[in-house]
Design goal:
Mean pLDDT: 85
Structural class: mainly beta
Strand content: over 45%
CATH architecture: Beta Barrel
Number of domains: 1
Number of helices: 1
CATH topology: Thrombin, subunit H
Shape: globular
Number of strands: 6
Distance between the termini: 37 Å
Largest sheet: 6 strands, antiparallel, barrel
Helix content: 10-25%
Strand order of the largest sheet: 1-2-3-6-5-4
Radius of gyration: 14 Å
Low-confidence stretches: 1-11
Amino acid sequence: MVNKVDKAMATINQRRHERIKHRASIRVSTNPEQVHVLDMRDFSESGMYLACDENNVVTVGDEVEVQTLELEDAPILKSKVMRVDKDGFAVEFIM
């Protein structure tokens, strides 16, 4: 029998795209119109994980906009919050 923790870890580890560890400052615009600068922990073709000490910045299902601060005029990517945990949250880019 598979317990809930094992099932959650299996889902997290079954990713469509390989995760690349990379640290970068990311501007995150949340609803309603709040802006946070957070540290990206990793990313892939389809999303990224953002470290965040505050638990109430986003909830699963929220749509946010993310933009790296490492590149001048970097694109703003619409994203959806897919997972929130004690260390931060994961977003999937809306294509």
